[in-house]
Specification:
Length: 281
């Protein structure tokens, strides 16, 4: 009887489902379909040519290079930060948490401007870098630094609440049994958070490959040298090469779809792992 009072009428449930479906169709499915439709409007041959164009290939290589460098670095930082915050108490703990959340609260464009202020020719370190022939702004290092900055919260923010919820009992038991710090980390802490870690890496990689604002500021938009996939799409669209722009954009759309599938799989595996853990206890 109590459940019937709490449940919504059938008409209300169907109305809410219909609103959700219409919303997803309008703001997710239709734009995705439009991207692939426009990309293939002039045929598969034109689509392939747009992706094999030298500037497009250079943008793809730079995007992959940036992700290959940024994601592992953020992985290491995220694990270390989450382990320290969740398992230990130390002065400045709340300040560290605030700094981790900083990229979420600051516009990516502002992040890019900060790097220009630091490493640009007129910036704080610009003259010294110029004197030593080191180029960061309008070069690949600047793109990598900006990407690292805007993506480093993802892994840490997935792991911190997970590690806090698990507590320190397993680690303390391992230490009592004679395990040292590294053994405890590799055999106890890391296996307990593997699905949350993978989830954070997936989100971090998706953001690294799709970042536009911060990278746009520090890149200089040099075609074939400092343009990532999002920047190359912007250049093509501004030059009225719409088909080529949508062809390259389809790569990011495919990345989004792969990310959604991987995200759903990780969530399912994490749920199954939690059910098994509860059943064992």
């Amino acid at each position: 009887m109590r459940e019937s009072h709490l449940s919504e009428p059938t008409a209300v449930r169907w109305l809410l489902i219909a609103i959700a479906v219409v919303f997803l169709a309008m703001f997710l499915l239709v734009p995705l379909a439009a991207v692939f439709t426009e990309a293939l409007r002039k045929g598969v041959g034109v689509y392939v040519v747009a992706l094999r164009e030298p500037d497009a290939l250079a943008a793809i290589r730079l995007t992959l290079l940036t992700a290959v460098i940024a994601v592992p670095l953020n992985l290491v930082f995220g694990v270390m930060a989450a382990w320290a915050i969740a398992k230990f108490d130390f002065p400045g703990k709340h300040l560290l948490i605030t700094l981790i959340d900083l990229p979420f609260s600051v516009s990516p464009v502002v992040c890019g401007l900060i790097y220009v202020l630091l490493f640009g020719l007129q910036g704080w370190f610009g003259p010294w870098l110029f004197a030593h022939h080191i180029k960061i702004i309008f070069a690949v290092p600047g793109i990598i630094l900006a990407t690292i900055f805007v993506t480093f919260p993802f892994v840490a923010r997935e792991l911190i609440p997970l590690m806090q919820a698990q507590g320190t009992e397993d680690e303390e038991a391992a230490r009592v049994l004679g395990a040292d710090g590294w053994q405890t980390f590799w055999r106890v802490t890391l296996p307990n958070v593997k699905w949350g870690l993978l989830y954070g890496v997936i989100l971090c990689n998706a953001r690294a490959m799709g970042e536009f604002g911060a990278v746009s500021v520090v890149s200089g938009h040099i075609r074939g040298q400092t343009t990532t996939i999002p920047l190359h799409i912007e250049i093509l669209y501004n030059e009225y090469h719409a088909t080529a722009a949508f062809a390259v954009a389809s790569l990011l759309a495919l990345l989004a779809l792969v990310t959604l599938v991987a995200k759903a799989w990780v969530e399912w595996k994490a749920h199954e792992s939690l059910k098994e853990s509860v059943h064992e206890h």
